[in-house]
Amino acid sequence: xxxxxxxxxxxxxxxxxxxxxxxxxxxxxxxxxxxxxxxxxxxxxxxxxxxxxxxxxxxxxxxxxxxxxxxxxxxxxxxxxxxxxxxxxxxxxxxxxxxxxxxxx
Amino acid sequence: xxxxxxxxxxxxxxxxxxxxxxxxxxxxxxxxxxxxxxxxxxxxxxxxxxxxxxxxxxxxxxxxxxxxxxxxxxxxxxxxxxxxxxxxxxxxxxxxxxxxxxxxxxxxxxxxxxxxxxxxxxxxxxxxxxxxxxxxxxxxx
Lengths: 105, 141
Ligand SMILES: Nc1ncnc2c1ncn2[C@@H]1O[C@H](COP(=O)(O)OP(=O)(O)OP(=O)(O)O)[C@@H](O)[C@H]1O
Ligand SMILES: [Mg+2]
Fold this sequence. Notes:
Chain A: InterPro entries: Anti-sigma_ant (IPR003658), STAS_dom (IPR002645), STAS_dom_sf (IPR036513). Chain A: GO terms for molecular function: anti-sigma factor antagonist activity. Chain A: Belongs to the anti-sigma-factor antagonist family. Chain A: It comes from Alkaliphilus pronyensis. The structure holds two protein chains of two kinds. Chain A has three helices and five strands; from the N terminus they run ββαβαβαβ. Chain A has a five-stranded mixed sheet, covered by helices on one side. Chain A is globular and about 30 Å long. Chain A has a single domain, classed as Transcription Regulator spoIIAA. In chain A, a hairpin with a 4-residue loop joins β1 and β2. By secondary structure, chain A is α/β, with parallel strands linked by helices. By secondary structure, chain B is an alpha+beta fold. Chain B has one domain: 2-Layer Sandwich (Heat Shock Protein 90), CATH 3.30.565.10. A five-stranded antiparallel sheet of chain B has the order 1-2-3-5-4, covered by helices on one side. The chains are: A alpha/beta, B alpha+beta. The structure holds adenosine-5'-triphosphate and magnesium ion. Magnesium ion (MG) binds next to α2 of chain B. The site of magnesium ion (MG) has 4 residues of chain B, from α2.
């Protein structure tokens, strides 16, 4: 069990819908980084991450998301995260990242 | 009154990213056995994983080396010691991240300190780093 990334472009909302399943850590964060940066290269639109099935993320994963947000900001887009589990919400809160990502529901 | 007993569990882990999840599972089992609640177990998993990640990314001298983890179980307290024989660092130079201007990198130790009750880092340039962290089981369990 590691990380599964499902991606879809939502034409109506003009945003990327990304579903993360599993764990983002030192072993899987490169895969996440590569995937997200490639998407933004393809279409410079807001990225919305569904974290319903995201069990775990560590500082390397958070670093990837910060990097992705920086890239998105160049195009005036944002990084949204929805359905966050309590343990991950706590981490975003501790690190202040809940203030720079758009946290939904 | 029963005399308190200290239990020691030791692991030697390869300097490879794929083994960090093994450590997370191991510590979850230990903390669960000790009666920590779900939230505390999550915190403990995150903290030990950050320390292991640092041992692998910053500590390593060579891929083929291992690093060591010791779990010390005493009464309601779980202490974890992660020890690598890597290049070490100057602990005074580890800074607190600026929460208003998040950067990629520099979050790990801050997260560990936020989640654990006690954290102590000792490092010797060229010799290695030891991070020792403890969590007490709360009364709400
Ligand atoms: N085991 C170690 N060996 C050598 N240096 C270390 C070790 N652990 C931490 N450090 C030093 O302390 C710094 C801060 O570590 P910390 O985990 O907070 O951030 P990071 O690893 O650089 O990035 P992040 O954890 O956010 O991915 C590191 O950049 C490194 O210089
Ligand atoms: Mg780190």
